[in-house]
Amino acid sequence: MESLPGLDLSQPPFDLLDEAGRQRLAARVDMGFHPRGETIISGGTPSERVVVILKGRVQAFDLDAAGHEQRFAGYGSGDLFGAWAVMAGRARHSYRADTDVVSYLIPAPVFRQLLADYPAFAAWFQEGLAVKGQLARRGRDSELAELMVTPVGAAELAPAVRVPATMSIADASARLREERVDCLLVDDPEHPEPGVVTRTDLLDALTRARAPLDAPVGPLASRPLVAQQTTDVLFQALTTMAESRIERVAVREGEAIVGTLGMAEVLAHYASQSHLITLRLARARSVGEVAEAARGIHRLVRTLHAQGVRMPALMELVSALNSRIMARLYELLLPPELQRQACLLVLGSEGRREQLLRTDQDNALVVADGCDDMALEAAMAGFSRALGEIGYPPCPGGVMVSNPHWRMRAAQWRARLQGWRSNYDAQAAMALSITLDARPVAGDAALFAPLDAQLQALGGDERLLHAMARAALQFDNPLSFFGQLRQDERGLDIKRGGIFPIVHGLRCLALQHGIGQRNSFARCEALVQAGALDAPLGRDLAQTLSVLQRMRLDAQLAALDAGETPGNHLHPETLRRLDRELLRDALRVVKAFQQHLRIAFHLGD
User: Fold this and answer.
1) Could you report the per-residue pLDDT of 553-588, keeping only the tens digit for each?
2) pLDDT at site 279
3) How confident is the model at residue 140 (pLDDT cuts 50, 70, 90)?
4) How many CA atoms within 13 Å lie on the side-chain side of 273?
5) Which of 184, 231, 240, 291 is most enclosed, with most CB atoms within 10 A?
């Protein structure tokens, strides 16, 4: 195919064509020149061509009822416009050359035929951000990324071998050898579900507990049964094993148990370091050994991100590993009796399972009545210090278990929540927001249940919801009225301008509608199911959050490579053309969501 200088047909959306389609396109493309001030396409009229800018700047604009110009977006080298005018027979906007413009012109009949012949190419122009983002990944996804959506049922499952609770340890060991499996499902009439006994359980019973060979295996079985459905993805099974500190789960098809899935089978699909990290954490006997295991997380993030793993799955895995780190420290630094008298909570992004690179410590403690306060104070000071040594810096706002204001009994928590409600200032807004994302990771989770119920009850306070939701509108959207991406000397703050409005807005809507999920993607899905979000907006919100998180991670990893501290800023001019387009689309979705929040919570401008 003869090359066309300045028109890269290997880039989206032209990479969605095959070689024959690209050759057909290259043979029919014309070149155009548009002097400054020329209206290239007029709003409301058809167009005989799709335009790809080679050089120069084009301004998109609309005219209001009074004939006043309302600028919409600016386009530069490599940008494409006019597709809608060709497909729909009329342009949604007008396009004017702001400078002298040199362009490539794709004739309308050629473009329409390509849309008809290549459904993926058509979807790029016809669908919203969610589909566009999926298509954009096609060129980047590796074989591993494809396996991230492989269902559990597609793995090579080990057989589910069931034995009675009365079977002896000796016979159970023999059965493991005969069946060539690592675990047995133990049926006990006193329990509705089978338990699991592993090879390690049997060995520990004989060597540590000095159990006789004829002792029954029933008391050794672990319950409740941890299971995945055949329709779940393997990556979710990996996360479940990491969180539950196990190396094998049962697999169900509906209610029936059809096999078991172990870490070995998962790792046959995912050559990741996550299993090594969890093993090191399980074996760690000191803070130094926990720190050594934790150092592998950044490498894991880099590897999986480079291989195209989707953001929700990557964040969930990293959060599961972070939870394991904190739980292991809790076990190492607190005596057993203290462990049972408190519940360790993670807050904010860690509570939502949306953590990637390590950020400030955001954690809290619910303490049982009668707990030894002095012993707990010393232990929590050591816990926060250990997290700092591992690489989780202290929270500038003091949201840490070493701070007595975040280490309280249930009655004190109830009083704190009431105080936040009655005196809802900026400090209370931050504190309440991150607490709404709280998730227990160690200690006695039952201590958190009353606090959780009280948090969810806040959804009935309309005045509080109104005040909370307003925070999602407090930062200016980086997409200007004229469609330009605003930034300062540090760049564009993608968290303030994009991620925070979505995360906080979903948090407020979930609270309003009694939805208990913490994760933003789960909240979004539940809100759509509850009718609180339109399905198209819900799909675009989830994709927008993934796009913004991925761009932030790209910028953070680049900062680390440059020896800088990672933050929340990026420089749009350094992005690929596709990413600039996705960023603009994402920020438009944020604007649409903010308008939804204004209506849902009756927020005036």
Assistant:
1) 989 998 888 888 888 999 988 887 668 878 888 898
2) 62
3) very low
4) 16
5) 184
Residues in the chain: 605
Dmax (CA) for the chain in angstroms is: 93
Between CA 552 and CA 107 the distance in angstroms is 38
Query: Tokens standing for 508?
Result: 């407020």
Please tell me the predicted confidence (pLDDT) of residue 295: 84
As a whole number of angstroms, the distance between CA 133 and CA 129 comes to 6
> Which pairing describes strands 248-253 and 227-229: parallel, antiparallel, or unpaired?
parallel
Alpha-carbon gap, residue 392 to 402, rounded angstroms: 14
Residue 197 burial by Cβ neighbours in a 10 Å radius (0-12, 13-18, 19+):
buried
Task: Give the whole-angstrom CA distance, residue 321 versus residue 437.
Answer: 18
Angle, vertex CA 576, rays to CA 144 and CA 100, nearest 5: 155
* Three-class secondary structure of residue 74 per DSSP: strand
Cα separation, 381 vs 375, whole angstroms: 10
- Looking at residue 542, its pLDDT comes to 92
Q: What is the pTM of this model?
A: 0.70
- For residues 215 and 203, is the Cβ–Cβ distance under 8 A? no
Both tokens of 105, joined, read 């012109």
Which residues lie closer than 8 Å to 31 by C-beta, 6 or more apart? 54, 102, 103, 104, 105
Own/partner pairs, 477-483, CB within 8 angstroms, 24+ separation: 477/501, 477/587, 477/590, 477/591, 477/594, 478/587, 479/584, 479/587, 479/588, 479/590, 479/591, 481/70, 481/71, 482/59, 482/71, 482/72, 482/73, 482/74, 483/60, 483/71, 483/72, 483/73, 483/74, 483/584
> Average pLDDT, stretch 121-132?
70
| Secondary structure letter of residue 42 according to DSSP | -
- How high is the mean pLDDT of the chain? 87
DSSP codes, 301-347 = HHHHHHTT--HHHHHHHHHHHHHHHHHHHHHHHS-HHHHTTEEEEE-
- pLDDT confidence of residue 129: 65
3-state secondary structure of 102: strand
> What pLDDT, in 10s, does the model give residues 246-300?
888 999 999 999 999 987 666 555 544 566 677 677 778 889 989 988 888 888 8
Instruction: Based on DSSP, count helices (H) and strands (E) in the chain, helices before strands.
Output: 26, 20
List all residues 6 or more positions away from 345 whose beta carbon is below 8 Å from its beta carbon. 351, 363, 364, 365, 366, 438, 439, 440, 441, 448
* Residues paired with 363 in a beta bridge: 346
Q: What are phi and psi of 215, to 5 degrees?
A: -70, 145
